[in-house]
Design a protein that fits this description.
By secondary structure, the chain is α/β, with parallel strands linked by helices. 23% of the residues lie in helices and 29% in strands. The structure holds hypoxanthine and magnesium ion (MG). InterPro entries: HGPRT, Hxn_phspho_trans, PRTase-like, PRTase_dom.
């Protein structure tokens, strides 16, 4: 797990280029998306196909790093469910087609820290009662997005209490915030500008999880689903 490279190449996140602040995204007209969100979105930041392709590469990097260790995948709900499902699927496919086989268990915690598009001070952790099962295990935490990093740091604190053997963090997205002590996950899909995004299980007040692409909402969308 701690011996990363087998035959050359760097973990793909080391050499990855961020999505820049002036990247205009893709026009919504290039793709399909649910009719009930027509008029609510600004543009597509990351199309679904690219998310899946990137996830396949992350699965490869993770598989190479894991070696012959068994892992517990800890999916952070609700936003992490799509990324986690696709990541687990890719890891399964890779391990099925190789000499090694990684035994995986999947567990879940649920966090809530956002109200509209603002991060709240108090983070709620739910479903952490059986985290004691993590003692002595190699744990891969799978998150949708790391913004300020506060949520992840709080979660890590809680999980470390269970004394796992190893903890690694995989996040589909990392936001480029002004936070100087910003948390960096071991694996991430894309570094994005400091903007609020939805889709591929990321929500705005529980809406937009049923959108395949990662998109930016417009003012109409924000107003329509504000609570
Ligand atoms: N979108 C949805 N949920 C989030 C985000 C975001 O940009 N950042 C943190 N949680
Ligand atoms: Mg959310």
């Amino acid at each position: 797990w701690s011996v990363p490279q087998e035959h050359g190449g760097f973990p793909s996140t080391l050499s990855s280029r961020p999505i820049s602040d002036d990247w205009p995204g893709y026009s919504l007209d290039l793709f399909t998306y649910p009719q009930h969100y027509y008029g609510d979105l600004e543009y597509v930041l990351i199309p679904h196909g690219i998310i899946v392709d990137r996830t396949e590469r992350l699965a490869k990097d993770i598989t190479q790093d894991i070696g012959d260790n068994d892992i517990v995948v800890l999916c952070v709900l609700k936003g992490g469910y799509k990324f986690c499902a696709d990541l687990v699927e890719h890891i399964k496919n890779l391990s099925r087609n190789s000499e090694r086989f990684i035994s995986m268990k999947v567990d879940f915690v649920r966090l809530k820290s956002y109200h509209n598009d603002k991060s709240m001070e108090d983070m709620q952790i739910m479903g952490e009662d059986d985290l004691s099962d993590l003692r002595g295990k190699n744990v891969l935490i799978v998150e949708d997005i790391i913004g300020t990093g506060r949520t992840m740091k709080a979660l890590l604190n809680n999980i470390e209490k269970c004394e796992p053997k190893m903890i690694k963090v995989a996040s589909l997205l990392v936001k480029r915030t002004s936070q100087p002590d910003g948390f960096r996950p071991d694996y991430y899909g894309f570094e994005i500008p400091d903007i609020f995004v939805v889709g591929y299980a990321l929500d705005y007040n529980e809406y937009f999880r049923d959108l395949n692409h990662i998109c930016v909402i417009n003012d109409q969308g924000k107003a329509k689903y504000r609570v």
